[in-house]
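Quick one, tokens below. Sequence please?
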């Protein structure tokens, strides 16, 4: 790359080109809707002001990941005083603590990977677990509070937010309520998110009144792969866990790649600054692998140590060809994908991890292009042509991979670009590389 523009600026430019515009702005009138309360964890409060048909001393909403063998439960929200009217408070509190679901119900849309809930209702010594939508509706009785209306809409598959007045709110209308809610209405070609005004009657019936598309998008940050890598796919209890387990293995394999790169650079007499940067990248990849192992475990992933067959020191041309494909294309594109994941992953831990990893991978990409600038003048014209062919082949491979379908759970939880977004990223990336070469 002979352009003076730094790689990080080029990647930020490609990312901005690839981000889809927000559609709308003159559709649904959201004025007049009252804000929805948030919990201390910035999640929608479904229990604030709730008035079920039978009063209770204590109500708790618990949340857990669906479709896992041993779901880990957490209290999402609670109101009232636990076991305040019990004659045997210790037994009552034990019953609340041990409450577990037989089924569970989603609040909002639920794809292949979502969270389910149960309600724990305590009155006197009685502790009841409600874990079906039908049970929740019967427990609520007539819809006569905003919280009743929001729960009814969420049980109908609508997402109820609390932080954005343009996409969340409620207002009393006649004998019922109108609620602002959203849904994903297209997973690809393009990815679309739609805002709705839904009417919730006193009987709990939910009806769409208005709709407007508010987002329309044309749907892993992986390090350098070493020569001799024997691929062993990640495994996991969930698709997301298996994905991150695979990423953890590839990050660990990158440790081998940068160790070999530093050794070969020294063998061929590269400037000391390049070998030192290769060793620093090796240390980064050790940390990346450790972080990805933790993220994989969070989603039930089981990672495997990479297996790399030893290879002799490569010729300068072989090093240049590998650097052009693995570094100047794959690793540079991986940094771009990491930037995307840092922006779009639903899980805040994933966003934080990818923010740091994308920053490191961008630095590694700069190293790849610095090596390219050092090695090219030392090659014959025929060897330089072969290096360029390797780069074009890698760009073709990126474009081919970008056209493959992506599991919805990976798009949501890991922030992986969907098919249309990946195509746009790959196209803009290839054009930026061509313009800067």
């Amino acid at each position: 790359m002979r352009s003076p523009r730094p790689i990080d600026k080029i990647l930020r430019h490609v990312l901005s080109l690839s981000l889809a515009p927000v559609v709308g702005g003159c559709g649904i009138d959201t004025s007049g809707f009252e804000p929805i309360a948030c919990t201390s964890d910035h999640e929608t409060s479904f229990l604030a002001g709730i008035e079920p048909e039978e009063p209770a001393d204590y109500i708790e909403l618990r949340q857990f990941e669906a479709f896992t063998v041993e779901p880990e439960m957490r209290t999402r929200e609670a109101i009232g005083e636990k076991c305040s009217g019990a004659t045997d408070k210790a037994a009552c509190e034990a019953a609340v603590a041990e409450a577990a679901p037989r089924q569970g119900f989603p609040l909002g849309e639920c794809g292949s990977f979502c969270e389910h809930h149960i309600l724990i209702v305590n009155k006197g010594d009685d502790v009841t677990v409600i874990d079906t939508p039908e049970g929740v509706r019967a427990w609520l009785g007539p819809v006569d509070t905003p919280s009743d209306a929001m729960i009814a809409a969420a049980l109908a598959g609508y997402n109820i937010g609390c932080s954005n007045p343009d996409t969340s709110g409620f207002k009393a209308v006649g004998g019922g309520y109108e609620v602002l809610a959203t849904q994903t209405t297209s997973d690809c070609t393009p990815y679309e998110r739609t805002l709705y005004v839904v009417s919730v009657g006193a009987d709990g019936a939910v009806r769409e009144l208005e709709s407007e598309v508010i987002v329309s998008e044309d749907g892993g940050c992986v390090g350098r792969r070493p020569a001799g890598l024997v691929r062993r796919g990640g495994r996991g209890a969930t698709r997301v866990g298996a994905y991150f387990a695979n990423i953890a293995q590839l990050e660990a394999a990158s440790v081998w790649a940068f160790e070999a790169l530093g050794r070969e650079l020294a063998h061929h007499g590269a400037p000391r600054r390049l070998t030192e940067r290769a060793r620093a990248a090796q240390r980064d990849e050790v940390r990346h692998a450790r972080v990805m192992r933790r993220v994989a475990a969070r989603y039930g992933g089981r990672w495997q140590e990479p297996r790399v067959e030893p290879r002799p020191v490569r010729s300068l041309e072989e090093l240049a060809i590998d650097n052009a494909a693995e570094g100047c294309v794959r690793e540079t594109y991986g940094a771009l994908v990491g930037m995307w994941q840092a922006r779009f992953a639903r899980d805040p831990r994933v966003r934080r991890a990818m923010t740091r990893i994308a920053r490191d991978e961008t630095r590694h990409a700069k190293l790849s292009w610095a090596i390219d600038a050092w090695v090219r003048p030392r090659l014959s014209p025929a060897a330089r042509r072969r290096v360029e062919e390797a780069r074009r082949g890698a760009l073709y491979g990126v474009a081919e991979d970008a056209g493959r379908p992506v599991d919805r759970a990976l798009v949501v939880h890991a922030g992986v670009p969907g098919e249309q977004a990946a195509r746009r990223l790959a196209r803009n990336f290839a054009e930026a590389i061509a313009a800067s070469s």
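The radius of gyration is 27 Å. The chain has eleven helices and twelve strands.
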